[in-house]
Each structure stands twice: as structure tokens, then as C-alpha cells.
Input
Amino acid sequence: MQKEVNNWFASWFDSPYYHILYKDRDYEEAQLFMDNIVHYLNLPEEAKILDLACGKGRHAIYLNQMGFDVTGADLSANSIAEAKKSENKTLHFQEHDMRLPFEEKFDAIFNLFTSFGYFESDEDNLTTLKAMKESLTEYGFAVIDFMNVHQVIANLVPEEVKTVDNIDFHIKRYVKDNHIYKEIDFEDQGEKFHFTEKVKALTLADFETLMEQADIFLLDIFGDYKLRKFHKMESERLIMIFK
Output
């Protein structure tokens, strides 16, 4: 399958600026989440885990340090090239389109930090869910960690400037056609850049509909990385466990 170079995520996630803008993300919180979710899923030692849309592999590396056999997959060639520097005999990375199932089967599949809903069509989102289901072992579980769109839209900051590494990132956020947009403008070394992030505003009800179509069993829903109950208006995240 040919890579769609015109998709915003193919170019933006491959850009070094993406990693500059987001380098202050809270990784301690992410590690706490992985500790909690691994404990909750009661994964066997040396379980095979897929980190789907793994970026540069930070979470895959952490899961591997916990003793799991981990595969990280991402569409971004640059991110995978970076991640591959950390490979060992139980940690592997590959370029992969999340719409396609894996030949290998996994005990757990993690899709973290709103790495879902980038595709234009609902069909692609459904295909992704089906591919995740097909890539699980008989007793495997999948986890999608998505934003809670109700909370995000209610607290949307329309404009802000974030300065990282002496670059002023001008960020605009808005909702249009059931998508949450983020326009990012900045200058570096005399050159102007413009990127747009666009994620489908999928609610729990939307996911439930997709999962029903994919013949997926939704087991549990959490509202944050401490695995507290999901509240539609207050929760920071929408974390879904399914098989």
C-alpha cells in the first residue's frame, strides 16, 4: 500500500519541529499509566506487546524495560529510524500503517496519547479497529488512550504562543466539521512553517458504534492515567480496554 504523502500526519510527525514542540510532554505520567495498565491487565511475564503509533519509541522502550517483548510500529520513517537505535532482542521497531493487521499476534496492543482518528473516513477508523482486533492473541487485550472530546472542547484554548528552543510556536485551536483542529505557525532560521493537526472528535458513543461494527467487546473504560472512573464532562482521557 502506497503511503499517502498528502496526509498532514505523514509530514508533521516526520518533522523535527513536532518533537521540539512536544518534548516537554509528561513522561512520568505516561510511565505511571503503563505501570497501572500492565498491572490491571495482569499481563504474563514476557508477554508480547505492540505499541501502535509508537513515535520515537519512548513508551515501547519503557515497556521493554519492564520485561516485555515489545514491537513498536509507526508510519513515520524518521521516528522509526530514531527508535531503531534502541532495538535489542526483545524490542523491535517497524514502519507500519495501522490500518493493516500484523501477521504476528500480540498479548496486548497499546495505542497511546490520542494516536487514533487521524484518517478522513470513518471506514479507515473502523479498518484500524478491525486490524487491532485481528492482531491480538485469543486472550489478548487492546487499549486505546484517546482524548475526552467533551472535556477538550469545553476547555479549548483558542490561541496561545509556546516558546521552545527559542522558537515561538503560534497555536490556534478550533472545532470544525466534527474535527478538532490545531494550526501551528512558526519561523526558524528565516523560514516560515505552517502545520495543521486534525483529529476526529470521537466520543465514547462513536467508539461504541465503531466497536460494535468491528465485533469488538468493550470491557472497561477509564477517565485518566490513574485508571479512575470515566466522567463525560470532567475526565481528562477516554481510555478503553477491549478485545
